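Margin note: ligand = zinc ion.
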Amino acid sequence: MEKRQAFLKVRFSHLLFAAFAAIVSQEKALGWSHHYLITRKYLESHYPQFSTIVVPVQQLSREVIELTPHYDPLKNGIKADAPCSNPPESMEQKGLNPDLCPRIQKLLTPGESATLSEILSTFSDEPDWGMDRDGKGGILKTLMGGAQGVKHLYYPFPFLMVPFIVFPQGEAPDRAQMFFNIAQRSFRECRIYEGARMLARAIHYVEDIAQPMHTEQTWWRFIKLASPVKGTERVTKNFHSAYEVTVMYRMFREMSGIDESMLSSAFEYAPKQIYRNIASMVRIKARTSHKLAHSLYALVWKVFPEKLRKAQKVKLTYSDVLKILRSPEINRVFEVTGKALQNIDLSFMIETSGILEALEKCK
Ligand SMILES: [Zn+2]
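Resulting structure:
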């Protein structure tokens, strides 16, 4: 009897584990496919003057470089920008904005200069270029899609998740705070380029948490009973990356005037608020974001192709994306996405970073 109880106990914990152990992270735990677009659109709405302020590119201080000793922004950044510099023909025809393409080298070369808006937008993608892939993450690392996943996600309490059922998981709030603190110091010391680079990194984590799927481990319909861990993980990833790709295409199309502005106008209405600090802002935002996750999962399940439900890696083709964009219910997906994007509040960060004071003082 005792044996049987022990067996049942093990079996139950195994099942519980399996049911929720689907890792949310997509291939690279991107968060959004192009943070560049999001940051740029936000700045256009709230800080249009940043597109006219020119800043010289400078060498980062030693201390900052040593924060990520195994990472080379030039090498990784240009690689990350590759899909942009070599867009699929169809994407180009359908209106990929050409000024998004290779822009990174110039922004990293001392002696060059760039607008503040360009620096903040471009480097808000930087934490996805491999910067965060090293480091320890323990059991969380395995369950959240590697070291990068741990740093880019945050599952707020009190929602059920594996492995630490009732503790919040993920380091995104702390990462945002850390880079924000460095930015503040750089601005105080009149290193505006470095401050903007660090602020852009902090912005990345704030934006990541606004992606509802980054705040919820998985959804019950994604669970594959035949392969509860690997299979569920696979289906979750399929939908996760398909969603991000679809949002990216829609934003490109809006910027090119093909589709009406829906996602890119979300920021016009983004409310400005005051928080205790950046980490607590990210935690608060994660809860709002989490509330959108269920409806988003339900919608993508309905609107996106059934092939994504298979427990194997499935990627959308360009014609899949076009079909999705034409589907009658896609606007409901974008309505939720619009709410998610409104959850991005960069103004609190910008106002308290010291950047505005530095621009005055350090002329
Ligand atoms: Zn990310």
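The CA atoms of residues 65 and 187 lie 17 Å apart.
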